[in-house]
Amino acid sequence: MKIPPFLKKGDTVAIVCTARKFMPEEAKPAIHLLESWGLKTKLGRTIGLDSCQLGGTDAERAADLQQMMDDDNVKAIWCARGGYGTVRIIDLVDFTKFQNQPKWIMGFSDVTVLHSHLNTLGIASLHSIMPFTVPNAPEDVKKTFKDALFGNELSYTIPSKPYDVKGKVKGELVGGNISILYSLLGSKSSINTKDKILFIEDLDEYLYHIDRMLYNIKRNGYFENVRGIIVGSMRDMHDNEIPFGQNEVQIITAIMKEYNIPIAFEFCAGHQKDNRTLILGSQVEFEVNERDVKLKFN
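^ LD-carboxypeptidase, sequence as received from the core. Prediction below:
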């Protein structure tokens, strides 16, 4: 796995739209944050474009991402926001130069498309806050983003839950949004989870949708040789008038019970304010015990 060079003061971070639209005025808090860390900002041509929901046409978004990937002066690329649209451009982008000269690509939610594709190419990336979420991000969450970008030590310890599954493992961290992982199954962007630790999270889904997606992911072999599961935020789940009969914890527990691996629920990442940065592609130590859940990046 290639780890892109960590940033240093004076480096330039590009902000681009790969999915939903994002206006220049909205970018100001993110620009201020980067400048406070001694970094420079370069706004992509897609910032301010309006193509219905999207930040420009597919061709415009792909070209903007391509330019920033190939620009030697840009040291990291920050996706402005999620929503939907990254999968529409992934096959329009040439990763040839990027594979030889990787740089950090950052974001979450719909950016899982890029995280997964990069993982298949052997390049690490950051599951992190985005310019759209900066205004509501707590200071300690912003610090985890800075620490990851600058190569500082990164580790998390949170209280364990009664329904967590205990265990201690090491492996490469992969994953992201469940809906996106599900949508990538069978494509060249679908990740290999063998001997890895899988992070999953989602937002605003029906409980039976979560069950259906996870069963399909299971049938595609994602869980057969995985070493551990980290479940992030599972906010705003919906039920039908006739209840499904299980909540998100019960759904995941039932599907995973045969594998006898550590599982941590309600981890501090995903669609919530406490969205701490994860280095996808990094080797990690993951432990769930009676008191704590520990995740340490090596």
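Residues 87 and 274 are 26 Å apart (CA to CA).
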